[in-house]
Amino acid sequence: MNILRKVVKRDIIFSSQRKFSSQNQPPEFLQAYNQLFIKSNIINELLPKKIETIDHLKETFPTLLSSNRAKEADLASVNKGILEPAHDLIDRGGKRWRPALGLILAEAFGRDIKNLEANKDVYYLSGLVELVHNGSLMIDDLQDNSKFRRGEPCTYIKYGADIASNTSTFLYFAPLLKIDKYITDKKARAKILTIFNQEMVNLMLGQNWDINWHNGKVEPNANFYHQMVVNKTSTLPRMNARSLGAALRLKNSQVVKLSSFLNSLGAAFQIQDDIIALKSQEYAQERDKYEDIREGKRSLVVINALKSGKDKKLIKEILNSHTEDVAKLEQAYKAIHQNQSAFDKADKEAKQLVEKSWTAINPVLPEGDAKKKIEELSQFIIKRNL
Ligand SMILES: CC(C)=CCC/C(C)=C/COP(=O)(O)OP(=O)(O)O
Hints:
This protein has 386 residues and is an all-alpha fold. It is built from 20 helices and two strands. It folds into two domains: 26-64 and 75-184, Farnesyl Diphosphate Synthase (Orthogonal Bundle), CATH 1.10.600; 187-365, Orthogonal Bundle (Farnesyl Diphosphate Synthase), CATH 1.10.600.
């Protein structure tokens, strides 16, 4: 298949420009938080779009070793090999609910988030998580053999697997170089570094389960699935909330509740994301309706369909074959769609998880506007169709 054929118009930055159907619009305030996030310029501060001079290179990566003789360096390769592919993916936008949620949570705990100068720590933590998230998507697309990300060919297709895998890892570590500048309290900084390390290990354990299952090595049950998603999907928003807990000096009991909220919300997000990948017209336009079937992904819908219903053997065979044959992909697609109860059960589970997440956080969130926004954002996560 000519993958460029399917490329749709690039959607940049703002969630409201994405192709949501009218009933499932993201909350209006999400755009305002996205704009604040962009105005803070944190992404470019952590990762410039282009390195212009050798002094700029040394200033951006102060720990970079250079030989005493070096009066010049290959800046073009840094720009073309890392900064361009990274910003290409970042500038495609996405819903950006993770950084927005970080800002709203800080607001709920008393920060005036519109004051960018006074909240550099909060913006840094949202930027850190957004960069790591983009790095994880870049490598995830390579591991899943995906074709499109945010309406354009995946980074590894556009720039090569070598560039994509290196840039992805770079995005995990480079933002940490600047932590001293933004998190000035030593104790908070030490806590955040520990949290970062723990959650990055969790992220890769979660991803490992996902990979082994799409390879057909192990057939997961619903319990396995939940263990996978609280590590693969809930991890980065949880990392943000736990780090905010350190920066804002929240009580341990509050941080525990916040983590529990994000565990459930992240799981609901992933279940809904996978339902969308199989069902939504908008998704089919932006990516490819067979994407998850070709990957062999064991989403909750698929786990349900493999547990009960017709054509289990056929579905499993096609999932494990990673075929590009459209007739076969359509066969599996149809067989999964015939099992409406597999979708209904997953949908019910996502809704219950959002309710559960709300029960966890309701008592710890101070009453007010920010709390209402967090509730609205949680609802959007299960009602959206892209
Ligand atoms: C350590 C790594 C690489 C972690 C990946 C984290 C992650 C949530 C990837 C996207 O999930 P997905 O594959 O379920 O979503 P999509 O269908 O958008 O690719």
